[in-house]
Specification:
The longest helix has 27 residues, at 117-143. The protein is elongated, with a radius of gyration of 19 Å. 42% of the residues lie in helices and 24% in strands. It has 2 domains: 2-140, Sandwich (Jelly Rolls); 144-220, Winged helix-like DNA-binding domain superfamily/Winged helix DNA-binding domain (Arc Repressor Mutant, subunit A), CATH 1.10.10. A hairpin with a 2-residue loop joins strand 7 and strand 8. The protein is α+β, with helices and mostly antiparallel strands. Strands 1, 2, 3, 4, 5 and 6 form a 6-stranded antiparallel sheet that branches. It has a two-stranded antiparallel ribbon with strand order 7-8.
């Protein structure tokens, strides 16, 4: 597994020796759907590399309501910002699809940051990109309608996870999870998905969404 990690941009500058020091095979474990990886508020002793599967990263708000921050897939790292800042973990992570995760302790991370300047730059770029995405999300919550945000979320899931040979998204979410991503009520998402279906923009089979008219979705999303 170690030899294949260089395909991911965050690890491309590391030597084989550095990769072996960063990720030990014994620290890679399988997680089942629904399993909690870590809870917000816990002490950050390290972070996780997603080798396979999909992980939901979220914060818990009033009355236990989730606000989904992102979905992490193979090649992503999660929980690292709290390690860098020295704070307790600021989000929770839950397995959305069966996954293999590799734990990376904070000491290994800081050693590489001190001894590999390109790795430090690559990590800084990753932090900056995620901050930029957060800024865009805040702007859209304030300025876009729920319909626009739902269309954009569907397109985001397409670009992040792709579609299969029948044009179904390669990630299956509940209506509640879609609502938590865009910051609205589940009932609103159910109604809008029905509208999109009636307008022949999508097809729905359980949790699966099939894209029928990407151009029209882009127009609704104001992309």
């Amino acid at each position: 597994m170690i030899s294949g990690l260089k395909q991911y941009s965050i690890f491309k500058s590391l030597t084989d020796y550095e990769l072996e020091e960063l990720i030990f095979e014994d620290n890679c474990n399988s997680y089942k759907k629904g399993q909690i990886v870590y809870h917000e508020g816990n002490r950050a002793r390290g972070f996780y590399f997603v080798n396979s599967g999909i992980i939901k990263v979220f914060k818990t708000g009033f009355e236990g309501k989730e606000q989904i921050i992102r979905f992490a897939k193979a090649g992503d790292i999660i929980g690292y910002r709290s390690v860098l800042s020295g704070e307790n973990v600021c989000t929770s992570a839950k397995v959305n699809e069966d996954a293999v995760l590799c734990f990376i302790n904070s000491e290994s991370l800081f050693f590489l940051l001190k001894h590999n300047s390109q790795f430090a730059i690559d990590l800084l770029k990753l932090v900056s990109n995620e901050l930029g995405e957060a800024n865009v999300f805040i702007t859209e919550i304030a300025q876009k309608t729920v319909k626009e945000r739902l269309a954009e979320t569907i397109l985001y899931l397409k670009s992040s996870f792709g579609i299969d040979n029948e044009n179904y998204l390669n990630i299956n979410l509940t209506r509640e999870e879609l609502a938590n991503i865009i910051g609205t009520a589940t009932e609103s998402v159910i109604r809008l998905l029905s509208d999109f279906k009636n307008e022949n923009l999508i097809e729905i089979k359980g949790r699966k969404i099939k894209l029928l008219n990407v151009t029209a979705l882009q127009k609704i999303a104001s992309i």
